Amino acid sequence: MKAIVIGVAALSSLSVWAQQPWQRIQMPTAAQVAQTWKAPPPEYGPEPYYGLNGAVDDTVIRRDLDTMKALGYQAVTVQAGYGMPFAYLSPEYFAFFHTFVGEAKKRNMRVWIVDDAGYPSGFAGGKFTELKPEMRMQALVVAQKITANAGEVVKATVGAETVVVSAVNSDDGATVVVPVTNREVAWTAPAGHWTVMAVEHQFKTSPTRSDTNPKRVKDGSQSLEDYLDPDATMQYLAFTHEEYKKAVGDEFGKTIMGFRGDEPDYSINGLPWTPKFFERFTDVKGYDVRPYLAAFLQPRNTKLTDAQARAKADYYDVFSQMFRDGFFKPQGEWCAANHLEYQVHLNHEEMEMDLVRSEGEFLRDMQYVQVPGIDSIWHQIWKDTVSDFPRLAASASHVYGHPRAFTESFAAYRPAPDVDMARYILNEQFVRGVNLVETMYFPASSTDRAHRSSYMDDAAYPALLSYVQRMSYLMSMGRPAATVALYLPSSSMWMGDGAADAAFVSAERMLSERQIDFDVVGEDALAKDLIAGHGTLETSSGNRYGTVILPNVSLLSQATIDRLRAFVGGGGHVLFLGRTPSLISGKAILDARAATADDFSWATLVAGELPSTPTPPAQPPSSPPAAQVVPEAFAQAVSAAVPVPEVKLDKVDTALRVMRRRWQDADVYLFFNEGGDATSHTVALRSGGHRTEIWNPQTGKVTTAKATSRKGTVRLQLQLKPYATSVVVVR
To answer: Is the pLDDT of residue 1 over 60?
Structure first.
């Protein structure tokens, strides 16, 4: 047995050693970073999203890669496009792709492979519809609906795919299961006004935008795989990733960085489902959810009973676990086993109430993803918006021990950004922890629709890419240093609690406007994934939280509460904003108990309502957003919960944002002035360093700053022009 243990430890050590530098947390010295950052390695990008459209050939890709390289791109994200002279995933396609990788290698460029011929990921260019129809995405839907009043007899024949027939009383929301015998229903309605619904499973897919679809439209003709079934994902990998491995696997982890996924979700009318769902649900929750299904499938604005709302939350809890384990985890593990990384972003990252219905739980989905991502492709980020959602991707990477988070930016902005606005949009993401940049869109020059995004033609664009490359490298080095965790109340949102979502978004803004660097954490992290210390909760990246803030939660698990109470007992700070939870769950949310008798005196509660933060508008208005006016009680509570802030200003400035990282021998602060006015401050930084420098990502220069150091605090003057950044390094 001892020999086996030693062997496993040696294998684990070898696995860590075999990781490439960009795939793991690195802790260099400031001197080491300074030697490299003027011309960072190409693994840190940036990269354009390149579409292989039209009559692509060797001449086209050589010309396009040369153009990218001349602009300043160090890597490329490549997708099979429409109208190629060979079929997607055919031997001819892979022979061409082998040539493409070789040409990228000659230019010392890196390659990310888009994992499908469009989006969302998971249809394998139509192969599931064509070759594996039994593995297509499925959903639960209402197949029949019959109204009946007291005493009326309902007779109906149901389909073989029916999973339950239920009747819902519109008077009080009560639901009863209707017996089915040999697919026949004969039921007499009791007192009330009833709707009898037959719920069945159907093959139903989110629309796919496939470049192999001859209609060139986004529709359901090429179905996605069953995301909840790991066997379907293994088939997806066999259709796609394994074939790339045969063709170009010798460049995995070298020229080829990994696979890039896009917006996997359930944009369907119905409930996500797979044949093993009910079995898994019963194992996890301990009861049969089928009697509640009809209630879940009523129109979205229908008010559910308390029991129905809780059971629906249980449904989405199990769905999100199965989505993670069925789709994201197998791909992350396959990439890791093949010296690659998996990067993907979801849908609706800036609209969590939509995300919890279509993807379940952002942080849970990203647990096994090496490069979590977000997109900012329309108007989520502009000078008129407040957009903290990029922290979701950065936080997932921090919590689960990955060095990078990526953005897909710009594709559908109307109006399109110029270079200055593009810089602003990227800076908003850098200061929230995103550190790998992909820009949309660069179509192959083989088609008459070959116009690139307009900002790429600006003479100032290469300088922006140089800035992005240095900033990406700089903010990937070391580890995150946030000591504050903000809880993402997904379980409350599963119950339809929009107030919890609004409070979360407002809390993000409140912390950002007070220069408090923070990570977003989910209940999995609080209940089990974070490493408990004495008054700390530590991420896999090594940063330790001393403060946890929970915004307006209606539901928490007992496991989370027990961990938070112990955290406070060791000296940590827990702050409930708005209220403490009214429900405490164990195995099943359906059986959650009322928290009326629970003692939360171990935590701090500040009652009331945070001011709401508006949803980003579809088009840019003429004026910037006003600063958030936070009630004094909230401001004081936050100050008490974060007793030793990392950054302290001489006066309030709600436009200044900050992100902090830690190198082996230095503290690194990225400041961004999001406002249209110049700003000047005396800034106090919590750091034990004695040499303060300003690092300029645009020029690569490092200059000494005038600063004073005393008792673990560094003070300096910080002056920023409108929309400008500054990187301060304290050695």
So the answer is: no
